[in-house]
UniProtKB/TrEMBL annotation:
It comes from the Eukaryota. GO terms for cellular component: cytosol. InterPro entries: AKR, LGALDH-like, NAD(P)_OxRdtase_dom_sf, NADP_OxRdtase_dom. Pfam families: Aldo_ket_red. SUPFAM superfamilies: NAD(P)-linked oxidoreductase (SSF51430). One of its GO terms (molecular function) is L-galactose dehydrogenase activity. This is L-galactose dehydrogenase. The lineage of its organism: Eukaryota, Viridiplantae, Streptophyta, Embryophyta, Tracheophyta. It comes from Raphanus sativus (Radish). Residues 23-289 form the NADP-dependent oxidoreductase domain. One of its GO terms (biological process) is L-ascorbic acid biosynthetic process.
């Protein structure tokens, strides 16, 4: 049985040969990290995303203490489509109980993930939030362990993720060329923070595919606002709240504007948005199609950029001291 799929722009992901949808499905909300999500809704959300042309799904054992992987696995299985019709990324090294980037743990981790996802392989296995581990261990132990998993067919490609942009250059300058296929950056290519932009030529020169996550700045750029645990400063939170309020007063949605902004640079292969309901999928896919059709609302974008100017590129600390 096949599901009729709408057309969506596909972009090449570095040198992997993969073609990922410009908007990717972030499955962290399926782990109920932004609020409870029932299994039936999780399955329906994954189905709607696939139906709308999204072919790229991202999760981690960390999200909801393995719940996200289980929910995504159920959603993908229910599609009943060939495995090659979708691209799945999961991660290793970060767990509810803490960080462990040892070769032994990540080797065990992929088997656990595959079982929860009900898959034989993943397309991408990322080292998750490497700034919380020793970057030298990532280079000398974790990535070689992942290369072994690649040879065994458990993952097709290898990635690294984290918040500080300096982690990517640190690792990519030290590993043999081609041993890291992709990077996943988050909260650095959005209306309030676009610092990833300056790193794109370097990443391209390394032949590394770029995935950018959290265009809504993990809820900062939404009408409902961020979850309790959000690490932004009170100043950044209140500026984003003002920007969302401004859009609302004009009858516009900040989520649409924010997503369209992040999608605007084709050097970024896929923009991962966390989605937990069919209506969010519909709304976000409509934003993509509108961008392809009539383009962005430049007037509202300028107004929002002016509101966010005092906090532009403000981020928050993440990780351990590497010295
Ligand atoms: P996000 O910026 O995508 O925001 C997600 C929040 O916005 C959720 O609460 C979601 O329900 C809500 N939302 C989505 N569409 C909406 C709409 N149209 N209207 C109102 N609210 C809407 O943040 P995120 O989920 O943290 O990031 C996206 C994905 O990227 C994650 O799910 C995860 O897969 C990945 N990610 C990875 C890392 C990492 O590897 N370190 C870090 C962050 C994100």
């Amino acid at each position: 049985m096949s599901i009729p799929q709408a057309k969506m722009e596909l972009r090449p992901l570095g040198n992997t040969g993969l073609k990922v949808s410009s908007i990717g499905f972030g499955a962290s909300p399926l782990g109920s990290v932004f609020g409870p999500v029932a299994e039936v809704d999780a399955v329906a959300t994954v189905r709607e995303a696939f139906r709308q042309g999204i072919n790229f799904f991202d999760t981690s054992p960390y999200y909801g203490g393995t719940l996200s992987e289980k929910m995504l696995g159920k959603g993908l299985k229910a599609l009943q489509v060939p495995r090659s019709d979708y691209i799945v990324a999961t991660k290793c090294g970060r767990y509810q109980e803490g960080f462990d980037f040892s070769a032994e743990r990540v080797t065990k981790s992929i088997d656990e993930s595959l079982e929860r996802l009900q898959l034989d392989y993943v397309d991408i296995l990322h080292c998750h939030d490497i700034e919380f581990g020793s970057l030298d261990q990532i280079v000398s132990e974790t990535i070689p362990a992942l290369q072994k998993l690649k040879r065994e067919g458990k993952t097709r490609f290898i990635g690294i993720t984290g918040l500080p942009l300096s982690i990517f250059t640190y690792v990519l300058d030290r590993v043999p060329p081609g041993s890291v296929d992709v990077i996943l950056s988050y909260c650095h290519y959005g209306v309030n923070d676009s610092t990833l932009f300056d790193l794109l030529p370097y990443l391209k020169s390394k032949g590394v595919g770029v995935i950018s996550a959290s265009p809504l700045a993990m809820g900062l750029l939404t009408e409902q606002g961020p979850p309790e645990w959000h690490p932004a400063s009170p100043e950044l939170k209140s500026a984003c709240k003002a920007a969302a309020g401004h859009c609302k007063s004009k009858g516009k949605k900040i989520t649409k504007l924010a997503l369209q902004y992040s999608l605007g640079n084709k050097e970024v292969s896929s923009v991962l948005v966390g989605m937990s309901s069919v209506s969010q999928v519909e709304e976000n896919v409509a934003a993509v199609r509108e961008l392809e059709g009539v383009g962005m609302d430049q007037e509202t974008l300028s107004e929002v950029e002016a509101i966010l100017e005092p906090v532009k590129n403000q981020t928050w600390p993440s990780g351990i001291d590497q010295n």
